[in-house]
Design brief:
The chain is mostly helical and 280 residues long. It has two domains: 165 residues, no CATH class; 76 residues, no CATH class. 73% of the residues lie in helices and 1% in strands. Strands 1-2 form a two-stranded parallel ribbon. The chain is flat. The two termini are 47 Å apart.
């Protein structure tokens, strides 16, 4: 008697016409969460091992800004206000970095959880889905890091960074600011992937997106302005323009998917008609 493998999270499904029980769904969800958490733990360990290099990388925009503007503008150093701040900062950086390193695995686990509800032909988009998701997140994080010095310059200037106010950045809050910016921009750049997925499953159509493109562009610029608190037009455009381009690209991809789907349906209808005529 063959004993089934206990680690199997769910039975093999061929498409959305097959059904999973509630127990299967819970087992599948548990498996995906455990694997994602294990990937995060591995990422945290890696960041812990290279903590000094990661900290230098994160503080480089601030140090470079202070070197360019001079010591009267900012000192270029960060500080701690308690003995536990250094430890908590190390944990925060390791956790943020671990999540970023594990992001491809996390997205893969999410895809594997939702893929049973898709048709076999739709499952082939797994690799492009994971690749585009990771690439866009990294692109958003890069733009956030690239414009970090502009944000710091604006914030220091508004607080009085010409000698009236002594700038003393607390390391814990500085890292929180950097992490928030990278997360906000990385997640914001996932917007086109979400649009493509909604078109793929039939929730949205490219015609609907085309009809509301003016509102979409307005919404993108408003979001870019909100997540760009330093008010620099260059920084806002550096976020709004790529997101607008990605929106249009997602519409084009939706039109291509729609055209292929219609062509496939026409071929299936023709095959069914031929078979019906032959049987008659």
């Amino acid at each position: 008697m063959k004993i089934p493998f206990k680690g199997s999270a769910r039975p093999a499904l061929k498409g959305p016409e097959d059904r999973m029980t509630l127990r299967d769904h819970l087992a599948e969800l548990r498996t995906r969460i455990v694997r994602a958490c294990l990937a995060i733990v591995v990422g945290v360990i890696i960041i812990m091992a290279f903590y000094d290099q990661v900290l230098q990388f994160l503080t480089r925009p601030y140090r470079q800004l202070c070197e360019d503007r001079g010591p009267e503008f900012c000192s270029g150093k960060v500080s701690t206000l308690s003995a536990l701040d250094g430890f908590s900062t190390r944990i925060s950086i390791s956790l943020y970095g671990g999540i970023i390193l594990a992001f491809p695995v996390i997205m893969w686990q999410i895809w594997k959880f939702i893929v049973p509800g898709l048709h076999a032909k739709e499952k082939k988009y797994a690799i492009p889905f994971i690749f585009s998701t990771v690439l866009l997140f990294l692109l958003g994080g890069f733009i956030a890091y690239w414009t970090l010095d502009l944000a710091l310059e604006f914030l220091i200037s508004w607080s009085g960074g010409s000698g009236e106010v002594v700038q003393l950045f607390e390391i814990k809050k500085y890292i929180s600011l950097v992490g928030l910016m990278i997360a906000a921009y990385g997640i914001g750049f996932e917007f086109p992937v979400l649009l493509v997925f909604l078109q793929l499953v039939g929730v949205l159509s490219p015609q609907t997106l085309l009809k509301g493109w003016r509102y979409a562009v307005m919404f993108i610029f408003v979001v870019a302005a909100v997540i760009t608190p330093w008010g620099d037009p260059f920084s806002m455009l550096a976020r709004a323009i790529p997101m607008t381009v990605f929106y249009l690209i997602s519409v084009v991809i939706g039109l291509i998917f729609q055209k292929r789907k219609r062509k496939r349906e026409e071929e299936e209808d023709n095959n069914d008609s031929s078979m019906a005529g032959a049987s008659a």
